[in-house]
Each structure stands twice: as structure tokens, then as C-alpha cells.
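Objective 1b of the project was to move from sequence-level analysis to a structural picture of ligand recognition. The entry below was assembled by the postdoctoral researcher (A.K.) and checked by the PI before modelling. It contains the amino acid sequence of the target and the SMILES of the bound compound, magnesium ion.
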Amino acid sequence: MRILLFTGKGGVGKSTVAAGTAALAAAAGHRTLVLSTDAAHSLADAFGAVVGSEPTEVAERLYVQQVDAQLRFEQSWAEIQRYLLTVLDVAGVDPVAAEELTVIPGAEEVLALLELRLHALSDEWDVIVVDCAPTAETLRLLALPEALGWYMERVLPMQRRVVKALKPVLNRAAGVPMPGDSIFDAVERLHAELDEVHGLLSGPTASVRLVMTPETVVLAEARRSYTSLSLFGYRVDGVVANRIFPADNADDWRAGWVLAQDAVLSEVGQSFAGLPIWRSEYRSGEPVGVAALAELATDLYAGSDPLAVPTGDGPFRVTRTTDGAVLHLSLPFVTREQVGLARNGDELVVTVESYRRLLTLPAGLSRLRVSGARVEEGELRVRFRDAAPVAQEKVT
Ligand SMILES: Nc1ncnc2c1ncn2[C@@H]1O[C@H](COP(=O)(O)OP(=O)(O)OP(=O)(O)O)[C@@H](O)[C@H]1O
Ligand SMILES: [Mg+2]
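Corresponding predicted holo structure:
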């Protein structure tokens, strides 16, 4: 099964391009589902069809779903939230403020992605296309289970035992309700499911496409997304430059735009060297409906296979050396000064400006000691050599 994600700044054409790509996949004979997790559902508008929160057929083999984020939120988070609310109530926090405290920004969207897991398990689809929210923020949040891994594996089971033992005493003494088994179960289940979704989306058959319009500000954001997506383990396999003004018979106004866009497009080429850059013209009207979307996508991919599985190195790989190994983490546009690195047991903590990833080291590396790091050719390269690791080390 192939999973394609489309992300990019607001209004650049993510939904249009995602829908068009899905239309091509279905026309090529694949059972295709395109879904959006964004609360502002525009897939229905792109297809010019009524679409519900369950997969709705819009053409042969082509299904569209606008996930009800609120519903998924209630199913996965409600029990945990109810518990937090009772604790805050006992602590004397005003109920309205308490309600607000238990809402995590962006959580709804992330939980909507749980839908993807169900579809991937169902064996009903050959291709799943995801129309993501305006920034890569959601995908970053998906790396959360990995960051919580240590806590979930070692601390939570211990807490569970302690709470069980102390429960009769504490409930009477403090009046604070202790979390029951069902709360622990709910937390563990949510953690495992989110971890699975992250695994699916960073796996070998999934890739992310950055949609942009040829404008300086939009390019800047696309470059930042490329860095943070790579940091969190997602493979970017192409860039869509959308709404390019046609140069033919241009009046002065349009000729001005053509020149400006050309300048940005050549910067796009340099920024994303090595990735395909698919181009789509600014059409004379909104591409709405399966036929118009498929036509846009046909022009966009210009004969190349829109579903091609990316080859070559992913954002993360390990190579062997004579006396150890090197971990390669793709980090485009980043300089060594912007990267922070620390070792914590079998985890590597990588920070790039405000982004931070806790990377679980593969078994082969966790036995080794970090001997240095550098940034070369858009990659962070961390050298490991044969020597017993120390529990914590700061690499500078
Ligand atoms: N190549 C194009 N030519 C003409 N119109 C386009 C083109 N691409 C997209 N549009 C139009 O631009 C508008 C925005 O496109 P779309 O909804 O796909 O963007 P989006 O990135 O999904 O937006 P949002 O961030 O709000 O989800 C729509 O009206 C769409 O029909
Ligand atoms: Mg959209």
C-alpha cells in the first residue's frame, strides 16, 4: 500500500493537488482513498461533491473522507480527559479553566490521523492520499510517542504498580481520585496507536510532498518544513510548484509576475536539488470536480509515475566503518551551529532551533560511544566507535 501526504502553507493548493493525485491513482486502477484531517474540510469543495465523515465514493475506485476530528478526539482522549478533570476539580481549579487545561493544541488533528491506521489495517486500499493541515506541525506532533517511549516503557508500568498499592490509603487520605486501570489502559492504547501511525507515515511506502506557490515567503516556509519533516523521520519525495503564471501572450502585469515567479522557481530548483519539482499552471478557473482535478494532475506529473515509490536513502540510515558506525540524519539547510546533540542512554536527542527529536538508537548503535558529529551535504553525521557508552554525554 502506498501512502502520500500533501502539506504546505495555507491556500497553496494542497487539497487540489492531493485530490488530483488521488483521481489519477483511481483512474490507473488502484483502490484509492483520499482523506483530510483538517477541520476546514475543502476536499468536498475540490470534488464538488457532498462528502461525509465515512469514505464516500466520488468516482470508480475513488473514495473521499473528511475525518470527524472531534469524534475521534472524544473516542481516544475523553477518558483520560475525564480523569484529569476530576483531579483538577479536587484541586479546586475552576471547571471552565480545567476544561481548557486538558485541551492540547493540535491534538484533534493528530487523533484524526488514527483513522489512517484503521484504513491501513483494513486491506481495502492500494493508495491512501492524505490532505494535511497547513503546516507540518501535525506530523511533528506524531513523533510524540517516540519521545514518550522511555516514560511509557519504564515509568508508567511502575507508576501503575505504585498507584495500585497506594490507592486504598490515598483515596481516603487526600480525597484525590487515583487513576484506575482503565486510565492507564487508555493512555497505553493511545500511545501504541499513535506510534503505529508514525511508523506507517515514516515507513518505506510513505512519502510527503511539499506544495508551494512560487513566492519568496512560501518558499521560506517550504524549506523549514523540509528540515523539520526530515528531522522527524518523514521522507519528502517531491515538490509541487503550483499556480505558475503562463508566459505566453502576457500583458505587462502578468509579465511582471512571470519574471518574479521565474526568479523564485530557480531558487526552488536550487533548494530542492535532487527532488523532482512538478509544475502546475495557474488555470483560468478553479479546478473543481474529478475531471478537472485529474487533468491538472496529468499536466503536473507530466508523464512521470505519481505513485513511484521513492528510491535511495531515506532521512535516516546507518553505515558501518572499520571501528564503529556513522548515523546519517538528513537535515537540509541546517548548519552545524544550529544543531544540538546529546546522548541519553539509548536515545539521541537532536535539536534544530526550536525543534527537538528524541531518537531511539538502533540496537547496534546503542552499544557504541559517540565520538563526534558534523553536518555535511545536508546531513547530520554522528560517528560512533567501539567503546562502552557512557550513560549521558553532551556532544558539542
Ligand atoms: N493550479 C491552479 N489554478 C487555478 N486555481 C487553483 C490552482 N490550484 C488551486 N487552485 C484554487 O486555489 C484555491 C485554494 O486551493 P486549495 O483549497 O487546494 O488550497 P489548500 O492549500 O488546500 O488550502 P488550505 O490551506 O485552506 O487547505 C482553490 O479555490 C483552488 O480551486
Ligand atoms: Mg486544503
